[in-house]
Write a structure and sequence with these properties.
Blueprint (H helix, E strand, L loop, with lengths): L3 E9 L5 H9 L17 E7 L2 E7 L9 H16 L2 E7 L6 H14 L3 E7 L6 H14 L4 E4 L8 H11 L17 H16 L8 E10 L5 E9 L2 H8 L4 H18 L3 E9 L7 H6 L10
Parallel strand pairs: 1-3, 1-4, 4-5, 5-6, 8-9
Antiparallel strand pairs: 2-3, 7-8
């Protein structure tokens, strides 16, 4: 029996559907999915099995024009994920077509992938007519020599099995990299923090979600089988603390309830979740915060 294993990088613009595709491939929620762009900060790896192959997905942050240190570190992580992978999948949105951002990714793709197989996945195909899809497929393949093109809907699952089957065939022969029952290589502490951050992102608006981070400070396994999880929400200003708290603490309470419910579902047991909000004006400039997110602080330098 020949086994295969390898890394697959999903790259694309923010909000192209990379996290949704990763979660669909793995069959569980390992990457946060929100309506806000640039929510994936760390290179989250999800692990899927396809026949005798183990597919390790690297869900990179969206590629966009960086403005701040955190942005620069995220973009460096995205290109780093592509450079380290065995196979790369470029995901674009059918209804948006070849945007300026997609053109920039295509410009850098050849240098980073260096002869590796690169597949094109056109996502959200239910939003455009067939003739537009054919024209977009031709346009993209005229611009770059993709190994294969897949028309998919990550949200609805269309075409995802075909893509996963093809990816499995491209991976190098070798032993599996992770135990059979493992679906992500992120520590549970980080997944728990990401789940809470997703709930905050969904509840809050404008710039604030990008100016806060969540860390799991303590994780205690209790004798009754439940877990006590203590998390800190770091914000940059006193005013932000009030926004996260909400009127009579309603916002943070609803975030806590939503995060706890999802954690219980994910872990399959009871969870006691305690959230604290702390003001740290310079958290975006602290190397420890980047380490928590799996990013390289130095990559954020100008």
């Amino acid at each position: 029996m020949t086994t295969r294993a390898g890394f697959i990088a999903l790259i694309g613009e923010p909000n192209a559907g990379k996290s949704t595709l990763l979660n669909r491939m793995v069959g569980a929620k390992v990457s946060i999915v929100t309506h806000k762009v640039q929510t994936t900060r760390a290179r989250i790896r999800g692990v899927a099995l396809e026949g005798e192959a183990q597919l390790v997905f690297v869900d990179t942050p969206g590629l966009f024009k960086p403005r701040r240190r955190l942005d620069r570190a995220m973009v460096a992580a995205a290109w780093g994920g592509a450079a380290d992978a065995d196979v790369v999948v470029l995901l674009i949105e059918a209804h948006r077509g070849v945007t300026e951002g997609v053109e920039k990714i295509l410009d850098g793709l050849g240098d980073v992938t260096k002869g590796r197989k690169v597949a094109l996945a056109i996502n959200k195909i239910d939003r455009v007519p067939a003739e537009r899809l054919l024209a977009l497929t031709k346009d993209m393949n005229d611009r770059f020599a993709f190994s294969e093109t897949f028309l998919i809907s990550a949200e609805k699952g269309h075409g995802v099995d075909t893509l996963r089957g093809w990816l499995a065939e491209q991976l190098p022969e070798g032993p599996w990299l992770y135990p059979e029952d493992q679906i992500a290589d992120l520590p549970m502490r980080m997944i728990a923090a990401e789940i809470t951050r997703e709930k905050l992102t969904l509840r809050l608006h404008q710039e604030l979600p990008y100016q806060l981070t969540v860390e799991t400070e303590n994780w205690e396994e209790r004798q009754d089988g439940s877990a006590r999880i203590d998390q800190v929400i770091y914000v940059m200003r006193d005013g932000h603390k009030g926004i996260v708290l909400g009127r009579k603490g309603e916002t943070v309470k609803s975030v806590s309830t939503a995060a706890r419910t999802e954690l219980e579902e994910f872990l399959g047991r009871r969870v006691h979740l305690f959230l604290q909000i702390k003001v740290r004006p310079n958290w975006l400039e602290e190397s420890e915060r980047y380490s928590e997110m799996g990013l390289n602080f130095k990559d954020g330098n100008e």
